[in-house]
Specification:
Number of domains: 1
Keywords: Plasmid
Distance between the termini: 34 Å
Helix content: 25-40%
Mean pLDDT: 86
Number of strands: 4
Strand order of the largest sheet: 2-1-4-3
Order of helices and strands: EEHHHEEH
Number of helices: 4
Largest sheet: 4 strands, antiparallel
């Protein structure tokens, strides 16, 4: 039986008080997970840091960012070409672990993640209390 992986992109406020799901999909192999994450990392980077002659964004809407601000688009673009990190992600997912790429700028935090649905189901069963009984916190 083939495993299925849940892939998602989420943006959070800097204090994690709010979250917005930006993308969600299911794919069937760790290699396809990396391909999916790469496509969404590149797309998110292009939205945050468009080229000055991008048709959908007027040049006057763009402004330079202070060098003191973390450069989330560059982190995302570097990840897209980092084959060693891609192999690490494939290894983690193949071993049944979650993979998350995180970055932030001065306005938000971003997480691109993937996990096996089998791991999610197992985790939920483990943390669910029996019917009629309250769950204990460790």
């Amino acid at each position: 039986m083939r495993d299925i992986y849940r892939c998602e992109v989420t943006a959070y406020t800097l204090d994690y008080s709010r979250a917005w799901g930006l993308a969600l999909d299911h794919v069937i192999t760790p290699t396809l997970v990396v391909r999916w994450l790469c496509g969404h990392a590149a797309h998110l980077a292009d939205l945050m840091d468009p080229h000055p002659i991008t048709e959908w964004c007027p040049a006057e809407a763009l402004r330079p960012v202070s060098p003191n601000v973390p450069d989330a688009p560059s982190i995302l673009r570097r990840w897209c070409v980092d084959t060693d990190e891609h192999e690490a992600a494939i290894g983690l997912l193949s071993d049944g672990r979650i993979y998350t790429l995180g970055c932030h700028d001065d306005t938000a935090r971003y997480a691109l993640s993937a996990v096996s649905l089998a791991v999610l189901r197992s985790s939920r069963r483990h943390h669910m209390a029996p019917a009629g009984r309250a769950a204990r916190t460790p």
